[in-house]
Amino acid sequence: MADAVGLNMNEVNGLIGRVEYAIAHDLTVSSEDLKLLLDLLLGSNARLNRQKSTIDKLRKLAGLVNPAEPGNRGRRLGTRQRHNRSGFATGETPEVEHEVEKHPLQTQHKGDQCPECEKGKLNKTEPASSLRVTGQAPLKVTRHILEQLRCNTCGAYFTAELPEDVLKDGARGQHYGYSARALMAIYKNLTGVPYFRQQSLQQVLGMAVAASTIYDQCKAVSDLLKPLVKYLLMLAADAPDYALDDTTNRIVDQTGKQIPDRRTKKPKHRTGVYTSAVVATLEGGQPLVLFKTNIGHGGEWLDEVLQPRQTTAPPPLLMSDALNRNQPSVIERYIWCKCNAHARREFHHCIDTVAQAEWVIEEYGKIWQHNTHCDEAELDVDARQRYHHEHSLPVMESLREKCRDWIERSDEIEPNSTFGKACAYFLNHFEDLCRFCHVPGAKLDNNGVEQILKLIIRVRKNSLFYKTQEGADVGDILTTVLATAVANNVNVFEYLVHLQQNWFDVGRNPQNWLPWNYQQTLQSRIQENSATVA
Asked: What's the rounded Cα separation, in Å, for the pair 485 and 301?
């Protein structure tokens, strides 16, 4: 393509950059660049196909990129790929548009004589650009002075109204705006900053806010979100795919209580407090991240989620570790897929003492390489299952044969040793560990939920405990909404603010305020308001 007009690829990229800059700053493209651009567009199609990166740039410049195309699957304009340790796997992060301020030249104007050569005239050209990142305190206070008039006869008062942008952030008389409440909830439940640490930060920045006040504001947000969380639980009941895990936690006033056993129904005194996470993936692929902190474990939380499930629903996929308590008791039919990361971990514990463990780890690594290939190739669930059946199942079967040999030859491997127990674990759960090779949609491991539980672990390490069950419930509601929003690539701050602004409709129609459809709801409201005004 570049050869057709005598340009190399660096010159072509420079042309594209000049045209992009002209569009961004509302400038006129020079006639030379327009001619070159026309020649490039009329060049050989075969040559263009070989220069795919340049085609993509030209199509993006023309606004022709379609996120729904196979090559653009999983990517949207205005998003970027991310990989971090925040508790979520690699995905997309919505980007906030930069504020743009234009600064006119004060000393010279278009058409003036050049002060340098004193011969030419000044013409408008590409503006210079300077990026500045500024900081501010998490919370700031604005005092609004409202003019008032008073009748000297009847004593009636007439007060100026607050600006519309102020009222959008909270009703009149509301000291802490929706944006402030959203930040408090995000700091505590998404980044693990405790209430008292938020208080200390604000104090050194010149605006002290008591930790109890921050909790009160977070509780106010959680009260507004209860209908939404209730609707998320209703959606999760009929999901086709579940993954669960739990981690220990502490609630100070929960010292123990009698809880009936799920199977024998006999009461049992229990004291263990856990935060359980269930990730339910809907038919459309949207993940719901649901948390519960109480004296109970992940299997009991899954029972609560599955309780309203329709009896006609097909058996769901269930991914977890091999603990029997993770099995649901309210449904009889389900496909249990057990986590291969847990099985691998059993061998990894003895890698320094048993030579055979290193071989097992290397063989298991091949399976994760196959899984990475499926991710990079963007295979659908059926193609992924076929690929694993062809390439990963032989590896799993070879591991099974080796484990059998090691168990049978007790003179070489002690059955009660750590390595012997790892082999027994693999053999006892082999069929469930191989589900990803036989069942479309079955996962290889439970690492996704374990990454999400890092949110809870971070809060636990920083805050140490909840004082009451009510405080734990507030944290569960907020973390459920925030984690579900993050998992669906939504700007959590904007989402939380919009939920508060429309709290009445969220309570009446929570189905319109899910992370993946709330923006359409906002857009339809804007259109309705415009039609009403017209």
From this structure: 21
Among 41, 67, 93, which residue terminates a domain?
A: 67
242: closest CA among 282, 292, 294?
282
Q: Alpha helix (H) ranges present in 25-172?
A: 31-41, 45-50, 52-61, 164-167
3-state secondary structure of 244: strand
Distance CA 52, CA 46 (A): 11
The number of C-alpha atoms within 13 Å of 350 and in the hemisphere containing its C-beta is 19
176 and 300 both lie in a single domain: yes
Tens digit of each residue's pLDDT (9 = 90 or more) over 339-377: 999 999 999 988 888 888 999 999 999 999 999 999 999
Is 78 within a domain? no
Q: What distance in Å separates the CA atoms of residue 31 and residue 37, rounded to the nearest whole number? A: 10
Please indicate, yes or no, whether residues 345 and 432 belong to a single structural domain of this protein.
yes
Q: Above pLDDT 70, what percent of the chain? A: 86
Q: What is the pLDDT of residues 120-146, one digit of tens each?
A: 888 888 888 878 787 888 888 888 888
| N-to-C CA span, the chain | 50
* Residues in Cβ contact with 125 at an 8 Å cutoff, skipping those fewer than 6 apart: none
Same domain membership, residue 362 and residue 305: no
75 in any annotated domain: no
Pair 291, 277: CB distance under 8 Å: yes
| 267 and 359, same domain (yes or no) | no
Task: Classify residue 247 by its DSSP letter.
Answer: E
Are the CB atoms for 333 and 266 separated by under 8 Å?
A: no
Q: CA 201 to CA 192: how far, in whole Å?
A: 14
**Quick one: 295 and 175 in the same domain?**
yes
The number of domains in the chain is 3
What confidence category does residue 93 fall into, taking pLDDT thresholds of 50, 70 and 90?
A: low
> Is the Cβ–Cβ distance between 243 and 227 less than 8 Å?
no
On whether the CB atoms of residues 254 and 241 are closer than 8 A, the answer is no
Residue 15 within any structural domain of the chain: yes
Q: Containing domain of residue 291, as a range?
A: 166-314+323-335+467-534
Could you write out the DSSP letters of every residue in 263-327? Answer: TT--EEEE---EEEEEEEEPTTS-EEEEEEEESS-HHHHHHHHHTT--TTSPPPEEEE-S-GGGS
Cα 198–chain centre separation: 23
